[in-house]
Specification:
single chain, 269 residues, alpha/beta, 45% helix
Length: 269
């Protein structure tokens, strides 16, 4: 069983959540592994709204539903009744037997801090049941719970974009952080444009980087699907698209990351 954490050292938007959604969803579609996707950004509904239209989430009171989400998990944790099966009970199945989503709902502003502090323990518990637990983690290294989740991760997926300032900061500073040095990790550039001056070949040459750099191309159709709650429909529709096609290139690049994670994390089929 494997804990796979998606994280960026930068507070600014780099597409980390969309990478987590694309990779975990495609793994759920293409493999028989049982997967859970959760996150630590409780004040947003970015993950949840990729699978259900945000307006529907509000109108159907799913956001306030006490039978779903991290808030219910926290109540049982306080009562010393938290088990891996309980986490599954309070998760939302989006691909039956393949992918569940543990919503970041059911906690108020005061409870947020306590939930985040306990996130490492919740992830460990979920890891006892699921073949793979995917975590879209809060950016930067300032929070103790962030460092703890990263420390305990079986694989760390580091997401940056093609902003030169971020690229240079990553390779001149963060790549040497002690917490990252001995981790199983892969580097992913999200919203990738191959014709950019800052493409993979030029980055690897400039920083003499010998490890693979993975990419997920910019794809406005996928981004729209995330906004419309149609991620799974998008992936199913394009799963067999030609890799030379606009959508096929997105699927092909994401599949490379899925297969790499499947390999290095030794995820069960």
């Amino acid at each position: 069983m494997a804990k796979i954490v998606f994280w960026s050292p930068f507070k600014e938007e780099v597409g980390c959540s969309h990478v987590a959604v694309a990779v975990s969803s495609l793994m759920g579609i293409t493999h028989k592994s049982t997967c859970l996707l959760t996150h630590s950004n409780f004040e947003t509904k970015k993950i949840e709204s990729c699978y259900t239209l945000y307006d529907d989430l509000k109108n159907n009171d799913i956001i306030a539903d006490s039978s779903l989400g991290i808030g219910s998990v926290m109540r049982l944790l306080k009562s010393n009744k938290l088990t891996p099966e309980v986490i599954q009970n309070y998760a939302k199945p989006v691909l039956k037997g393949r992918l569940d989503i543990l919503y970041g709902i059911g906690v108020d502003t005061v409870e947020n801090r306590e939930a985040l502090k306990n996130l490492p323990f919740i992830v460990k518990k979920a890891d006892e049941l699921y073949d793979a637990v995917f975590v879209d983690l809060t950016k930067t290294l300032k929070e103790e719970f962030v460092r703890e989740v990263i420390n305990d991760a079986d694989v760390l997926v580091i997401v940056i974009n093609q902003d030169y300032v971020k690229i240079d900061r990553y390779f001149s500073k963060y790549v040497n952080e002690d917490i990252l040095k001995n981790k199983n990790k892969i580097l992913v550039i999200g919203d990738y444009e191959s014709k950019s001056k800052y493409n993979v070949q030029n980055i690897k040459f400039k920083y003499r980087y010998k490890e693979p750099i993975y990419t997920i191309p910019h794809n406005y159709i996928f981004t729209d699907a995330c906004s419309d709650g149609n991620v799974l429909d998008y992936l199913y529709k394009n799963i067999n698209a030609d890799p030379k096609d606009y959508n096929g290139a997105f699927i092909s690049s994401t599949t490379q990351i899925v297969e790499k994670l499947f390999d290095i994390a030794k995820i069960k089929e």
